Amino acid sequence: MIKIGILGDIGSGKSFIAKCFGYPVFNADEEVGKLYKKDIKIFNKLKKRLPKHFTKFPISKREVSKAILANNSNLKKIVKIIHKKIRDKMTFFLKKNKNKRIVILDVPLLLENKINKKNDILIYVQSNKTEVLKRLKKRKNFNKKLYLKFKKIQLPLEFKKKKSDFIIKNNFKKKNIRKHVSMILQKVIQWKKLF
Fold this sequence. Notes:
The protein has helices at about 15-20, 30-40, 40-50, 60-70, 75-95, 130-140, 145-150, 155-165, 175-195, and strands at about 1-10, 25, 100-105, 120-125, 165-170.
């Protein structure tokens, strides 16, 4: 099985690009959303650590945002609780798809949490910063302070770019992205045949 990790800035189009590959995708953000809605154990752990902020189940994204903005250490506390569960879910996803030729990992803190393995393929999504911000501002619950807090816990983009095997320049044109994805897939499959 070939594992492809998608890296890039918040709002750079990683999730859309991940889907374009046409292989099973593990989307960590979607999984986190499901935990907030359905996992009472996660709620209890968060309530224990941050009782002022987590008072009712299911957890709303607004509550999470308020908790993160209230205190500089809250984001790390939340990530610590959520991360282990997401890792378990990813392990389950990989087992479930073990017979697939390729799987895509759309995990924002892939490198930060050392989730990737040495022989995984890494693809960096490069997008124009002003275009990214413009798109983020259109999101219903966009909050610049929140965005900056998440940026702080991420590794520098230049580092991620250097670590990557391929770079996709995302100009937010679907046809162009699909062409890039197809070229990368061909190279990855050929490359893996050599080893």
